[in-house]
Amino acid sequence: MLRMSTLFLRTLREDPADAEVPSHRLLVRAGYVRRVAPGIYSWLPLGVRMLHNVSRVVREEMDRIGAQEVLFPALLPKEPYEVSGRWTEYGDLLMRLKDRRDNDYLLGPTHEEMFTLMVKGEYSSYKDLPVMLYQVQTKYRDEARPRAGVLRGREFTMKDSYSFDLDDQGLQRSYDLHREAYVRIFDRLGMDYRIVSAVSGAMGGSASEEFLAAAPTGEDTFVHCTSCDYAANTEAVQLKAAEPVDPSTQPALEVLDTPDTPTIDTLVEVLRDQGHDVPASGTLKNVVVLLRWPDGKVAPLVVGVPGDREVDVKRLEANVSPAEVLPFEKFQDFPQLVKGYIGPQGLEGVRYVVDPLVVQGSSWATGANVEGKHAVNVVMGRDFTPADVVPAAEVRAGDPCGRCGSPLEIGRGIEIGHIFQLGRKYADAFGLDVLGPDSKPVRVTMGSYGIGVSRAVAAIAEQAHDEKGLVWPREIAPVDVHVIGVGKGEQKAEAEKLAAALEAQGVTVLLDDRPKVSPGVAFKDAELIGVPTSVVIGRGLDDGEVELRDRRSGEMRTVPFEGLLETVLTELRS
Ligand code: ATP
Ligand code: MG
Fold first, then answer.
1. Residue 185 phi/psi, 5° resolution?
2. Is 143 in the pocket of ligand 1 (CB under 6 A)?
3. 196 C-alpha to ligand 2 centroid (Å)
């Protein structure tokens, strides 16, 4: 039983000054977490219970699919991460440190390398596979923008698991098992979430999906189709693009004088004056950015997108990872980049890529690489050939779904889980083979799967609160029932008895047994802390009545004191 009289808890009436989002504000005010440094938090007793409750659900569902729990250290040697290339690739995100002998170490941001080595150390035959291993452990990432309390920490708790299979079919099975486990986990956690296609990013590999908790404060944007079940992170979304056409059927390229056309709108106008009716979406905007790789190398990149759209830097960055996208300023060093008049045709010595909306054979009005001039009928596949196709254009509500063509809707969410088919990237790096039935070595194929356990606590809070405080779902609330006794008669003694009786039935109780607290304060604290069910034993006791409060619906119901234990037990089962 948790007794408020002795519980290590101080609720706060004021919002913390640095809190931008409701979950951060309320987790601090209700005494679940305390800030230690930017992105680094301590958990107080109620918070620790939340962490344990989320971890318990995660463990139960991981165990159910046959994954086995292990535990790695957080403090890791550099070498495995050098072999995989991530010692460099992670750049500033990696927390690095040295021991007294000047050896390099890191605090693990995720553990693909270590799990691969562990399996390589223990297993050698095809008969040993498949195997799935997981841990619930502290991770470290020196995030550029730690934010919103424990939502984006620099130290955080993650459940990470890894699957090891002999072939693609096996990998698909392990992936599907994880997907099902994640659905059960987030359902049990009472979350409103979407499963969306994702970019695989620095992890490498192919298929990957994210679980996003719907929240207006989320950092991820995703699209979902209004008619089919397509849903994707905007970083990974595939819009419906025009059909490719034969470039040779297009009219010839023509260069025009177009002075004073600093914007797409002015260009459209000047072109119209010269008899070329090109909409903004028929112009090709070429945006120069600077890419910086983790090893410090930098190079400009020119990205072509339809002129009626901006470049979405987050989307671009996700697709050029591990490079970072920075503003480009040094036009003087690249005379071929004529500011305001850049075109892809004849652009040499600079990498040029297009968004997938720019297709083979499509014809554009764009810069002519000469001050004051643009060109029309510039055709991809005839007048220019991009080095690559990189999703970079902003995605807008109403854009056509890449699968069925219906309009897309845009939502915001918090990434709470991520499942990847890694393939053989790490098995190749570490030579993870097992002997096949014919005694020939078989390269193992892997999956990697993460859930942000500490982030989930905040993401649930983000979805489950009102102006008065937190409103936890039953399965992970810090306790099952909050019992409050107020009054000068037998109320406190009866509250004690009820709490003891509930605990004897295996129900966890938070008992407000503080001797000098007014009913008002007790109720305010109860609302802030957010236990779904409260029992208030107050003045009505003299008439044989007590009150049941449901924090989720706000309902307050008078019930007879007689048979109270049964009434509460029934309520908890409902
Ligand atoms: P994000 O895009 O939010 O930075 P990520 O894609 O880098 O996350 P993964 O490497 O996929 O994260 O990690 C697995 C899970 O760990 C994520 O789905 C998320 O729930 C959680 N997580 C990642 N970074 C953080 C963080 N800084 N603080 C708390 N949880 C995190
Ligand atoms: Mg992720």
1. -60, -55
2. yes
3. 11
Does the structure show a pLDDT above 60 at 136?
Answer: yes
Q: Which residues surround ligand 2, an ion (CB under 5 A)?
A: 418
- Per-residue confidence at 202, pLDDT binned at 50, 70, 90? very low
Distances (CA, A) of 76 to 79, 139, 142, 160, 451: 9, 11, 16, 16, 21
Q: Which residue has the tokens 């209700």?
A: 30
Q: What is the per-residue pLDDT for 206? A: 64
Residue 29: pLDDT above 80?
Answer: yes
What domains appear along the chain, each with residue ranges and CATH number?
20-196+425-462 (3.30.930.10), 247-389 (3.90.960.10), 479-573 (3.40.50.800)
Tokens of 566: 């049964």
- Give me the helix-helix angle, 453-463 and 22-29, nearest 10°: 100
Predicted local confidence at residue 146, as pLDDT:
86
- Judge if the beta carbon of residue 141 lies within 6 A of ligand 1: yes
Give me the mean pLDDT over the 374-380 stretch: 93
Rounded-to-integer distance, Cα 275 and Cα 333, Å: 36
Residue whose CB lies within 8 A of the most ligand 1 atoms, among 455, 457, 460, 462, for a mutation test: 455
pLDDT reported for residue 263: 87
What's the average model confidence in pLDDT over 300-306?
95
Predicted local distance difference test score (pLDDT) of residue 560: 94
pLDDT of 207 over the 90 cut? no
* Euclidean distance between CA atoms 313 and 289, whole angstroms: 9
Ligand 1 atom nearest residue 416's Cα: 20
Starting at the earlier edge strand, list the strands of the sheet with 254-257: 254-257, 373-379, 363-370
Nearest CA to ligand 1 atom 8: 415
pLDDT value at position 56? 97
In angstroms, rounded to a whole number, what is the distance separating the alpha carbons of residues 355 and 391?
Answer: 5
Instruction: Average the pLDDT over 447-475 and give the result.
Output: 96
pLDDT higher than 80, residue 203 = no
CA 379 vs CA 257, 346, 368: distances in Å: 19, 12, 13
CB 291 within 8 A of CB 299: yes
Nearest to residue 200, comparing CAs of 452, 458, 450?
Answer: 450
Identify which of 89, 235, 418 to mutate to test ligand 1's pocket (most ligand atoms within 8 A of the CB): 418
Residue 383 DSSP one-character state: T
- pLDDT tens digits for range 525-547: 999 999 999 999 998 999 999 99
pLDDT higher than 70, residue 311: yes
The protein residue whose alpha carbon is closest to atom 31 in ligand 1 is: 452
Cα-based distances in Å from 79 to 94, 117, 183, 422, 423:
14, 11, 36, 21, 22
Q: Is 113 in the pocket of ligand 1 (CB under 6 A)?
A: no
Q: Is 158 in the pocket of ligand 1 (CB under 6 A)?
A: yes
d(CA 490, CA 125): 69
pLDDT recorded at residue 155: 97
Helix pair angle (491-504, 564-573), 10° resolution: 50
